[in-house]
Amino acid sequence: MPVLERSALADSPLADLHAIASELGIDGFRRLRKEELIDAIVARQGGKPAAATGDAPASDDDAPARPRRRRGGRGRAREEREEEPAAVADVEAEPEAEAKPARRERGGRGRDRDRGDRERGDREDRPKPDRDRERGGKPREEGERTLEGVVELAENGSGFLRVGKGGTASDDDVYVSAAQVRRCELVDGDRVGGPVRPPRRSERFPSLVRVDTINGRSADEVSEGVRFDELPAAFPTERFAFGGDDETVSVVEFLTPIGRGSRVTIAGGAHTGKSETLRRLANALAALDAELETSVVLAGARPEEISEWREGPIAPAAALSFAATADAQAQAVDRAIEQGKRVAARGGHAVVLIDTLEGIPAAAARKALAAARSIPAGGSLTVIATATGPIGGETTIIALDTALAGERRFPAINLLASRTLRPELLVGEAGAQAIADAVREQAE
User: Fold this and answer.
1) What's the CA gap between 359 and 378, in Å, rounded?
2) 103, 128, 405, 432: which has the fewest Cβ within 10 Å?
3) Could you give the maximum distance between any two Cα atoms of the chain, in Å?
4) Which fold would CATH assign to domain 247-443?
5) Spatial CA neighbour of 187 closest among 373, 332, 342
6) What is the Cα Rg of the chain in Å?
7) CA 30 to CA 22: how far, in whole Å?
């Protein structure tokens, strides 16, 4: 690169000087004023600054300070713009700033500004302290830690990775945002791994940066699977064998059988025992299979029934009384159904119990019931809900009779109005014939 004279440098735009300083490897050149930058370039080329050699022509900086007339706000702002170093190398200085060398003798405000610029430059050269610190005052580790834990979801849609033994809560748990839960369709019990950042000042827990693995598989591979609604559906073929000595459960098991993937409505008028029947089925399901993901949603229930459910083996995932709005009830049902879909899509078996579909919009009720299905060579989602009448599309209807309930003849099941589609797939041909005989006897 040819040696440039001081006069040529003085006539060059500030952006060109920045480019030259960058090629010469001058550190911190953007923080220098134009005159200081010229001195640094001359010195780096092998010359000496004008103050040492006297070769450069005298400038206003070498002259005694002249008394200046006080300027208004616009004049002072203009001087500050002339002195201020450019923030980006490709932005040229203003023409007036190139024409007028900066004065060193300035008022108090100007000297304070110069000193502040120099101090800021010094601070930028020093390593910046890490403001994000771990609890206990330890500096944040460089790089990303990778952790793995079991997902436990909260009611607001977010969740935590339980990293301790047994999946118990601890201060080392990792927060998972609701957006990550939705995007990766995470459900309770998923084992998730990924990089983790330390908590910031206003945070208590570390946060998951991204989801890399889900149950040992790549998160991308899991998310690229077929959408649940596009998965094939088959009539249920695996019956829930409840057992036990509960008479209501026994009648349901043998006369209106339910299988994995069934779409069930317990239908009946007021005070026919719909909620009681559902609760007895929930108790039987809780004792049936530890691998079965069973959840309960109370949407429009009586407060007394909410208390009874909470004392049972399956705590409700959501519990809204009939005072809640129809939209709130529909949202609670939809959240439980979506979680059940994710379990089934990954090969698991889920059951969602809903009491009741009566208070939510008809479209939302049909959507919830339609989600139930048995996936060939895969998982299943079973939906059992209460309503005053059939919703439509059920594979099993358990109809309760008002007259029988009034006579306290429980279970008050009306076999003539109850039915199971393709019962032979669940109980075989002999079992299906036994159901038909029972219906004929009641009809007579």
Assistant:
1) 33
2) 128
3) 125
4) Rossmann fold (3.40.50)
5) 342
6) 38
7) 9
Could you give the CA distance from residue 419 to residue 387 in angstroms, rounded to a whole number?
A: 16
Interval 30-68: pLDDT, tens: 778 888 888 888 888 875 544 433 444 444 444 444 444
Residue 2 has pLDDT above 80, yes or no: no
Burial class (CB in 10 A: 0-12, 13-18, 19+), 430: exposed
- Per-domain residue ranges for the chain? 6-125, 145-225, 247-443
Mean pLDDT over each residue of the chain, to the nearest integer = 79
Nearest to 371 by CA among 346, 396, 350, 388: 350
How far apart, in Å, do the first and last CA atoms of the chain sit?
110
Q: Write out the two tokens for 427.
A: 């109980």
How is domain 145-225 classified at the CATH fold level? OB fold (Dihydrolipoamide Acetyltransferase, E2P) (2.40.50)
Measure the CA dihedral 322/328/329/330, to 10°.
Answer: 150
Q: d(Cα 385, Cα 153) in Å, to the nearest integer?
A: 23
